[in-house]
Amino acid sequence: MDKQLDAGDLELAVLRELTALRSFAPSRGFSDLVMARVRLPQPAAVVLFRRAGAWVMQPRRAVALATAYAASVAIALRLTLPWLGAHAPALKLGASWLGTQVSALFNSVILTAADWAVRSGAADAVRAVASSGKVWPALAALSIGYAVGGYGFYALLKTPGRSDALVRS
Amino acid sequence: MATAKDLRTLGDREVVALAKAGKEAAYRELLSRYERPVFSLIYRMVRDRALAEDLSQETFIKVLNALDSYRPEYKFSSWIFKIANNAAIDQLRKRELDTLSLDGAPGARTADEIEATALQATDRGESPLAELESRELGSEIEQAIGKLRPEYRTAILLRHVEGRAYEEIADVMDLPLGTVKTYIHRARLELREYLAHLRT
Question: B32 at the A interface (CB within 8 A)?
């Protein structure tokens, strides 16, 4: 291209060169730096719970809510205690009946479990372990199993932290 | 679940919808689509690479953290260019960098500073001679763009470098369509004047 251009050529050359100007790229790692500061959307329930928590934890609101809670409990007691006093015999009878029912259900569950342990051979297996002197290793294995299971459950539920995020700083 | 390859075939609106649903890959796709255009626009506006990187980062963080407020009836590109342009214009107002040349920012004193703030016109896959000639004119144009008023600069860059429609530029700049056309026309005239020394 001759550097000396007439007016028409210059117009065309300017437009052509404008269109052909290179695009610049930011430095490597730009997108990771951006992503490290972007908040990815979370489930609505989590967001709602956090917002509610933040709202409640404002000092004045927390005091107001605690006062309202105490007042509502006092009002509820004020209304229910006289009624409870007036119906005490009937309530006592009802509570006694309910207690009997719960106790019977508990006994039934225990008996069913014991029956299953005897019939399935589980009781014999436990007895065999106890008599063979391996009770401590068995208890240790059981404890380790519980601990590993508990940690796995915790790892599953915990919120990913900065070190777990899939971005480089 | 959409893979990165699938995402590349989707339009901006679909990718934004996936990002709103919490897909990190969709966020990265938006970044990869717009990091060069946004960075180029800001860099040509402020003429300082480090500053352009900071402003581009702020633009993306602002946009990606506010996707919920994005209304799909508008073009995503208009939205992101508007935020990028506002960031650049604000910075120019703050630091009065609107008359910089290709040779670096006015505040650049040392050789390193000049090099860091100078725009580079480089290879577009042409022959060495054509590249040299083109680079010469490209450099002249980069220099001339740097002399334009910021409003003209935004308009001409969006129109001729990014290939955006007049209507989209009007959206980006919050100006009537007629004003945008006038800006682009005047910008071309000014560029011709700045490059008049190349005429016979």
Answer: yes
- Dump pLDDT digits (tens) for A4-59: 556 667 778 888 888 888 889 999 999 999 999 998 877 777 778 888 888 888 88
The answer to whether position A107 is within a domain reads no
- Contact of B53 with chain A, judged by CB distance below 8 Å, is answered with yes
How much is the pTM? 0.57
Instruction: Give a yes or no: residue A92 inside a domain.
Output: no
A35·B31 Cβ contact <8 A: yes
Range of the domain at A53: 28-86
B53 and A37: CB-CB below 8 Å? no
Token pair of A21 as six digits? 């100007």
Residues 6+ apart with CB under 8 A from B67: A41, B16, B19, B20
Using a CB–CB cutoff of 8 Å, tell me whether A44 touches chain B.
no
Q: Which of B129-167 are b and which e, b meaning 16 or more Cβ less than 10 Å from the residue's Cβ? A: eebeebbebbbbbbbbbbbbebbbbbbbbbbbbbebeee
Residue A53 lies in a domain: yes
Q: Which residues pair with A5 in a beta bridge?
A: B199
Global ipTM: 0.74
Assigned domain for A64 exists: yes
Q: Do the Cβ atoms of B124 and A3 come within 8 Å?
A: no
Q: Write down all domains in chain B, each with its CATH number in brackets.
A: 1-98 (1.10.1740.10)
Does residue A104 sit in helix, strand or coil?
helix
